Amino acid sequence: MFGLFKKKTQVEKLQDKFNKLMKEWHELSSINRSESDKKYAEAEAIARQIELLKSS
């Protein structure tokens, strides 16, 4: 209950976005390969941002 109004950190927001993109990537992987590759590239860019934030 006390965490109800807690704001998400930048890393948590990026992690949520990364998870969403990976889910979309998986769904598209059997339907549209080129769109799937685009989603995967976006997810990888976000993963690099997360690593940079965690290392600093």
From TrEMBL:
User: What protein name is recorded for this chain?
Assistant: Lacal_2735 family protein
NCBIfam families cross-referenced by the UniProt entry = Lacal_2735_fam (NF033487)
